[in-house]
Amino acid sequence: MLRCIYPGTFDPITKGHEDLIRRASKLFGEVVVGIADSKRKGPWFSADERVAMAREVVKDLPNVRIERFSCLLLDFAKQQEATIIMRGLRAVIDFEYEFQMAGMNRGMNPDVEVVFLTPSEKYLFISSTIVREVAFFGGEVSRFVHPVVADALKKQVEERKRDER
């Protein structure tokens, strides 16, 4: 059975992420969505909150697991007994970074392959950063995220604006 890791911060998980997870679940026997702690990135949501949201979004997919990690990606892949790392590409700028990371990972462990998927065209422009920005300034994000994520964003924005006062 082919098991792949789809790593990321998922702060928050978007419909673009969801699209890639759903498509990967048809390609691989098991998909492990690895949610990185990434405290150095200053995420809006805690790792536990991001895990809970992701689990809710893909709860109907029996071959998808959501796991938190705070180690080197290749170590996480080894722990999960995965031989494939899947990454999403939206634009050329994503490719340059991901290509460099794939080369580094291959150099560190040639037994782990990196595959790239592009999201459906309607999700090509979505990023967690843009979704957070739109939410912060009162824009409607329900087209870009699952309803549970939209609710969490609304609460997070209220907290952040309250803290700014």
What do you see in this structure?
The chain is an alpha/beta fold and 165 residues long. It has a single domain, classed as 3-Layer(aba) Sandwich (Rossmann fold). 45% of the residues lie in helices and 18% in strands. The protein has six helices and five strands; from the N terminus they run βαβαβαβαβαα. The chain has helices spanning 15-27, 47-57, 73-79, 92-108, 128-136, 147-164, and strands spanning 3-8, 30-36, 64-69, 84-88, 113-117. The protein has a five-stranded parallel sheet, with helices on both faces. Helix 2 (47-57) links the parallel strand 2 and strand 3 (64-69). The radius of gyration is 16 Å and the shape is globular. The mean pLDDT is 93.
For this entry, give a set of tags.
single chain, 165 residues, alpha/beta, Rossmann fold, five-stranded parallel sheet, 5 strands
What about the largest sheet? 5 strands, parallel
Helix/strand class: alpha/beta
Distance between the termini: 53 Å
What is CATH's topology name?
Rossmann fold
Query: What shape does the CA trace take?
Result: globular
Instruction: Give me the strand/helix succession.
Output: EHEHEHEHEHH
- Largest sheet strand order: 3-2-1-4-5
**Which runs of at least 5 residues are low in confidence (pLDDT < 50)?**
none
Helix fraction, binned, reads: 40-55%
Strand content: 15-25%
CATH class: Alpha Beta
